[in-house]
């Protein structure tokens, strides 16, 4: 089949998310200017540059108590910092609990019984048990076409790696099994890997 998004797809559910998959999940922790904290997963997330290291995530909807966006973006807009927590398979249920449309006064760390730890380079909390966390300072927020589409870019100022995830100097994803988002309500988990050398590499 072929369809133009502007004309609709005619299927029971939108296939777009399932086509662009699997997608890494950025579990974004933020702190508001009033000291309140928020934790929410975003599957429109990725690393975008090596030097300096930079990441992005995008938010595509709004909440009635946040006007033009959601808690994560609103907090980042106010404070200029955020932390990306990597989601392991073992924390899938806790991650899912933090995805709810909770009021802005709900602290997802507390609501989902997630232990927090203080970041080193920014005034924000991270998920204490996460395999890794990227502490970030905001570089820019870009408004995309659409009612509430915003992309947040950040420069990584600190990197936390859980000790058991380092094997012989390598960050070993098989030691914790990253969770990834598919389409619809589906997820997947990384349980195997293989290496491919680029042309000219030994």
Quick summary:
The chain has 202 residues and is mainly beta.
Name the shape in a single word.
globular
Low-confidence stretches: none
Supply the helix-strand structural class. Answer: mainly beta
Helix content class: 10-25%
The radius of gyration is: 18 Å
**Sequence of secondary-structure elements:** HEEEEEHEHHEEEEEEEE
- What is the CATH top level name of the domain at 24-161? Mainly Beta
Mean pLDDT: 97
Beta-strand percentage? 35-45%
How would you characterize the overall build of this protein?
The protein contains four helices and 14 strands. By secondary structure, it is mainly β. It has a domain of 138 residues: Electron Transport, Fmn-binding Protein, Chain A (Pnp Oxidase, Chain A). A hairpin with a 4-residue loop joins strand 4 and strand 5. The model has no long low-confidence stretch (mean pLDDT 97). It holds the Pfam family Flavin_Reduct. InterPro entries: Flavin_Rdtase-like_dom, Split_barrel_FMN-bd. This is Flavin reductase. GO terms for molecular function: FMN binding; oxidoreductase activity, acting on the CH-NH group of donors, NAD or NADP as acceptor.
């Amino acid at each position: 089949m072929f369809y133009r998004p502007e004309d609709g797809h005619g299927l029971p559910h939108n296939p777009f998310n399932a086509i662009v998959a699997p997608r890494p999940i950025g579990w974004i922790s933020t702190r508001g200017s009033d000291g309140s904290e928020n934790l929410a997963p975003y599957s429109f997330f990725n690393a975008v540059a090596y030097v300096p290291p930079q990441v992005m995530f995008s938010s595509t909807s709004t909440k009635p108590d946040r006007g033009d966006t959601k808690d994560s973006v609103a907090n980042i807009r106010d404070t200029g910092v955020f932390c990306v927590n990597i989601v392991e398979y073992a924390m899938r249920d806790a991650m899912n609990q933090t995805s709810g449309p909770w009021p802005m006064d709900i602290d997802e760390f507390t609501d989902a019984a997630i232990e927090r730890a203080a970041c080193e380079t920014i005034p924000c909390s991270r998920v204490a048990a996460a395999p890794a966390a990227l502490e970030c300072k905001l570089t820019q927020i870009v408004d995309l076409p659409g009612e509430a589409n915003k992309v947040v870019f950040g420069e990584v100022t600190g990197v936390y790696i859980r000790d058991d995830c380092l094997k012989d100097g390598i960050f070993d994803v098989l030691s914790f099994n990253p969770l990834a988002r598919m389409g619809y309500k589906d997820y997947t988990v990384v349980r195997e890997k293989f290496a491919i050398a680029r042309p000219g590499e030994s």
